Amino acid sequence: MKVIRSKRKRKMGEIDYGIFYSVALLLTIGVVMVYSASSYYSMFMFQDSMLFLKKQLISAVIGVVVMAIAMCFDYHKLKKYTLAIMIACIPLLLAVFLFKGTNGAQRWIVIGPLSLQPSEIAKYVVVLFLAVGLENKGEGVKKFTTGILPYLGVAGFYAAIVLAEKNLSIAGVIMIVTFIVLFAAGGKIKHLFGIVAPVMFAAATFFTLSSSYRSDRLLNFIDPWKDPADKGYQLIQSFYALGSGGVTGLGLGQSRQKTLYMPEPHNDFIFSIIGEELGLIGCICIITLFVIFIWRGINVAMKARDTYGTFLAIGITSIIAVQSLINIAVVTGSMPVTGVPLPFISYGGSALVINMAAVGILLNISRQIEGKEEIKEI
């Protein structure tokens, strides 16, 4: 009896369960912690302790459905829709200026009870563009003017619109992820680290210092106790929450900082409430789940059946990795305060659904990785 391996690849295989289970656990923890963190605030402000839980739960269910659909949709078909998605994203990004801003920023399209943050879509639109373009570019990416600059220009265009919405953090995520994908595609070190990185750093510094509220955040990050009642207030409350949680935490639902001390504790600073209620152990568990997701995402990228899948997987994984790193760094006082939500955990319907759709695409890539071949017995 001979055993031979057929060269014909299976159309679809099994998903990467490391990605699936890590996201499922993060999503479950997120829904529970949104309720725990928001219950007191929502009761005080809206007389309904379950208001944010109900909204997040609906978004989670929609997100799971969207993920399941994307998981079964061949990611290669996205190529022919990429240009249309890129064009459609532009009016969405501009439409936010027709709506009333929140805290000085215009980031949302609000129609009745529904809201959409187009910048969440823009992050993945740029990844789709990079994946298609760099697959066709091949070794041409090693040339700066024709291989690096055009992609930075398109990414910079979307980042500029997002920046005009007073959202430097997401604009920064777009450019950082673009840098990562270009590096993975084979861009030369001297171009990326000798030219692109210094220019990006200079631009970030300029936009930070040119805005009074951003420069205030930078200065208060250095010494938040200099203005504890105003500019440094949120970060100090985060320190109190993390410090009082200790190793094992105060217990689920027992946070003190969420009782109107921490502003909107279910949003960007939800990780500090996790630290207070679940302690260092809970924080390590969350970080471990993100590490597993990133590890498995990189593994999928390395084994993808084509370069398009590789770049798409790298881009999706990088967005989740960069956002989680920035959020945790902000909450722990390792970098200046900026509005980046913690993926799958922070409250936010549009962000959650869009991230789940991206995970579905990543799982679809994992179903078509190299090496999934049929074995025939003769």
Automatic annotation (TrEMBL):
<feature type="transmembrane region" description="Helical">
    <location>
        <begin position="144"/>
        <end position="162"/>
    </location>
</feature>
<comment type="similarity">
    <text>Belongs to the SEDS family. FtsW subfamily.</text>
</comment>
<keyword id="KW-0961">Cell wall biogenesis/degradation</keyword>
<feature type="transmembrane region" description="Helical">
    <location>
        <begin position="20"/>
        <end position="37"/>
    </location>
</feature>
<feature type="transmembrane region" description="Helical">
    <location>
        <begin position="307"/>
        <end position="332"/>
    </location>
</feature>
<feature type="transmembrane region" description="Helical">
    <location>
        <begin position="57"/>
        <end position="76"/>
    </location>
</feature>
<keyword id="KW-0472">Membrane</keyword>
<keyword id="KW-0328">Glycosyltransferase</keyword>
<dbReference type="Pfam" id="PF01098">
    <property type="entry name" value="FTSW_RODA_SPOVE"/>
</dbReference>
<keyword id="KW-1133">Transmembrane helix</keyword>
<feature type="transmembrane region" description="Helical">
    <location>
        <begin position="108"/>
        <end position="132"/>
    </location>
</feature>
<keyword id="KW-0132">Cell division</keyword>
<keyword id="KW-0812">Transmembrane</keyword>
<feature type="transmembrane region" description="Helical">
    <location>
        <begin position="192"/>
        <end position="213"/>
    </location>
</feature>
<dbReference type="InterPro" id="IPR001182">
    <property type="entry name" value="FtsW/RodA"/>
</dbReference>
<keyword id="KW-1003">Cell membrane</keyword>
<keyword id="KW-0133">Cell shape</keyword>
<comment type="pathway">
    <text>Cell wall biogenesis; peptidoglycan biosynthesis.</text>
</comment>
<feature type="transmembrane region" description="Helical">
    <location>
        <begin position="83"/>
        <end position="102"/>
    </location>
</feature>
<keyword id="KW-0573">Peptidoglycan synthesis</keyword>
<feature type="transmembrane region" description="Helical">
    <location>
        <begin position="168"/>
        <end position="185"/>
    </location>
</feature>
<dbReference type="InterPro" id="IPR013437">
    <property type="entry name" value="FtsW"/>
</dbReference>
<protein>
    <recommendedName>
        <fullName>Probable peptidoglycan glycosyltransferase FtsW</fullName>
        <ecNumber>2.4.99.28</ecNumber>
    </recommendedName>
</protein>
<feature type="transmembrane region" description="Helical">
    <location>
        <begin position="344"/>
        <end position="365"/>
    </location>
</feature>
<comment type="function">
    <text>Peptidoglycan polymerase that is essential for cell division.</text>
</comment>
<dbReference type="InterPro" id="IPR013438">
    <property type="entry name" value="SpoVE"/>
</dbReference>
<keyword id="KW-0131">Cell cycle</keyword>
<keyword id="KW-0808">Transferase</keyword>
<feature type="transmembrane region" description="Helical">
    <location>
        <begin position="269"/>
        <end position="295"/>
    </location>
</feature>
